[in-house]
Amino acid sequence: MIESKAELKRLAEVAVYAAREAGKIVQSRSDTCFEVERKVAGDSLASQVVTEVDRMAEERILQCLEKGCTDFDLGVLTEEREDDGSRFEKSAFWCIDPLDGTLPFVEGRAGYAVSIALVSREGTPLIGVVYDPRSEVMYEAVLGCGALRDGEEMRIESETAQLSVFSDRSSREDSKHKAVIDSLAQEFGGSGVSQIYGYGAALNACSVSGSPCSCYFKLPKEKRGGGSVWDFAATACIVTEAGGIVSDLAGEPLLLNPRGALFMNRRGVLYASSRELAQRIRSAHGQKT
Asked: Where is Mg(2+) bound in this sequence (predicted)?
């Protein structure tokens, strides 16, 4: 069991090392041929694609985290292995996405990352680490200790008149998502909203932590999908510690240790650079549904 902030920080250092190690594997295979498979997951192609690189990176992460799991009696939840239920039995668990943004990785473009979080049994993100191996950028945070980008303190700056909306590529065809964007555009002015598509969930969310007026959201929907716990656990810690807002579309905390399905489609997810912007998005969603 983790008993101090110092122990959390030591575990964060191990997670940073594990992310870099996995990133080396990912980037070393980025320009080579590798096996691509489809798995049973959400309703989007991005959630269904998996490669041998995902599994290789995951194995390396688990090797790096193994001693900490033993020393502190931690559970593990990973994208590419069956949920063993240890997240309900231990005081905290590692939540791992070895290659978030597998689709951009397969397509040879920017947008993929390694994501590692430590989450309490109650669902509070304690540690968040996201590593972009393509640009070699490291995001990290520990609960109550702030957020870092490549070792430098990261804090969301004052709001500006220009709104940046980071969105999954699948959102282009989502009429409800477009309706919320249109509503925001009316408030900010048509030229005051820029939309950035194509990153995986981890880098979309991390982009909010580095932009003065920005957001990333996935609306609730009936079909399973909307990302899974491991897509958001690390960035929930990072963005919150950078001064941003993280919630579902009802304004409630994200369920990061849920019973049953691990998908987020029922309640959606919302990252925003300020409380005011988050409320604007929730209001726009409420008006359009």
From this structure: 79, 97, 99-100, 231
> Span 5-154: which CATH code?
3.30.540.10
Under the phi-then-psi rule, with left for phi > 0, alpha for psi from -120 to 50, and beta for the rest, what region is 65? alpha
Nearest alpha-carbon partner for 137 in 30, 9, 56, 16: 16
Fold of 163-288: D-Maltodextrin-Binding Protein; domain 2 (3.40.190)
Whether residue 84 is annotated as binding a ligand: the answer is: no
For 70, residues 6+ apart whose C-beta sits below 8 A from its C-beta are none
For 134, the 3-state DSSP assignment is coil
Is 231 annotated among the ligand-binding residues?
yes
List all residues 6 or more positions away from 190 whose beta carbon is below 8 Å from its beta carbon: none
- % helix / strand / coil in the chain, to the nearest 5? 40, 25, 35
Determine whether the annotation assigns residue 79 to a binding site.
Answer: yes
Quick one: angle between helices 175-188 and 275-288, nearest 10? 130
What digits encode the pLDDT tens for the residues 223-273? 888 899 999 999 999 999 999 999 999 999 999 999 989 999 999 999 999
**Boundaries of every domain in the chain:** 5-154, 163-288
Residue 45's H or E segment, with its range, is helix 45-48
pLDDT tens digits, one per residue of 30-47: 876 556 665 544 444 444
174 marked among binding-site residues? no
Task: Determine the Cα–Cα distance for residues 127 and 149; give it in Å rounded to an integer.
Answer: 14
Instruction: Determine the Cα–Cα distance for residues 194 and 217; give it in Å rounded to an integer.
Output: 14
Is residue 262 marked as binding?
no
